[in-house]
Amino acid sequence: MLDELRAAIGRYVVLPSEETLTAVTLWVAASHIQSALQHAPRLAIVGPTKGCGKSRVLDVLHETVHQPMMTVNTSPAVVFRIIGKNPPTLLVDEADTIFGPKAGEKEDLRGLLNAGHQRNRPAWRISGPEHKPTAFPTFAMAALAGIGDLPDTIMDRAVVLRMQKRKPAERITPFRSRYSVPELNALREKLAAWLTPLRGTAAALVPTMPVEDRAADTWEPLVIVADLAGGHWPTSARAACLAMTRNEVVQDEQTTLRTRLLRDVRRVFDQAGRPEALRSQDLLATLVQDAEAPWAEYGIKGLNAYHLANLLRDFGISPANHRFEQGRQAKAYARNQFLDAWARYCPDPAQPAPAPGHEAARPARGTPPAPPSGSLPIGPPGGPAGPTRAR
């Protein structure tokens, strides 16, 4: 059943990797056991521009998920009243407009999407002619498509599909309602017939997860479906989970401006022979000269001393007077100030492991867990991702 669904999805959309195709397949199936789940994973379908296939993914989802509900033009009040013990699967196109700076009128829907990842997180509203406080359920799986990354509150609770435009050689089957919808609806009926009787079994399953914390909450429904299916699916699901969560860690490192700055400062110190300190003006000049870095375009006229100090302040790093050769003093950054931040936020992959008998440094709170050993794929699905130009 899952193999058939996976093949059908792959005919209509070009996804970034085999792992993402596996994830979408399991997400669709998981929507049919929502009533048995403790978490409702989001599916974030994001791309850098229009024409990346985001809406086509929603078209396919609309015909295969449990009780689909398109919310692009739906009143938030309607969504609040439809969600109940048997919630729909929310499909949100142009989700970037809901979370943008001019989306004030959609505050209710934004709050629902943020809260609905976990069961028993109702939204309280004044309702009815008597204006009584009323708790509205928010728990429902949701797929959100938009240009650019969605807010962290969504991305942290989502299986993320990073769509790209199709290459000329990448062919798909045209989506035609007359032919495609009946085929996909038949698959939905088969999924419901298979999974509906297994909701009690699914609710009792506690699968072994390859990740921890919120990532485990998000991926657990998909792994439960894979374990119910058996065959190659339990292994495929966990491999997809590892690859895609690692990819998001890489994306976070590449797109977080402060983390990027730490890495670039370390590179400048390394190129200078790891001196005890670097003059602020010399450090700034080298950073701005890097054509691949965002620093020449930072602010109005590029990164300056004030910007640099402001970006590093949260790491406990600040410039100070330092005496250089021939007794000259200048504002400078000491290399030893960066060591703790480098170890926590952008550890050197070439750093040797601690010698036996020596306790390793405790990782910072919130640092992603180290990946488990084994032969599962390492790194982003489909190959290493190039750095994203941060602004």
Largest sheet: 5 strands, parallel
Strand content: 5-15%
> What distance lies between the first and last C-alpha atoms, to the nearest angstrom?
44 Å
Low-confidence parts, pLDDT < 50 over ≥5 residues? 352-391
The overall average pLDDT, rounded, is 85
Count of alpha and pi helical runs:
15
User: What is the tally of beta strands?
Assistant: 10
Can you describe what's shown?
Helix content is 42%, strand content 12%. The chain has 391 residues and is an alpha/beta fold. β2 (68-70), α4 and β3 (89-92) form a beta-alpha-beta unit.
List the helices and strands and how they pair.
Elements (H helix, E strand, L loop, with lengths): L1 H11 L5 H13 L11 E6 L6 H9 L5 E3 L5 H7 L6 E4 L3 H4 L7 H9 L7 E5 L4 E5 L5 E6 L4 H4 L2 E5 L14 H19 L3 H6 L8 H17 L3 H23 L1 H15 L5 E3 H10 L15 H9 L6 E4 L5 E6 L4 H7 L46
Parallel strand pairs: 1-6, 1-7, 2-3, 3-6
Antiparallel strand pairs: 4-5, 8-10, 9-10
Question: What is this structure, in a nutshell?
Answer:
With 391 residues, the protein is an alpha/beta fold.
Question: Which features characterize this protein?
Answer:
disordered C terminus, elongated, 3-stranded antiparallel sheet, 5-stranded parallel sheet, 15 helices, alpha/beta
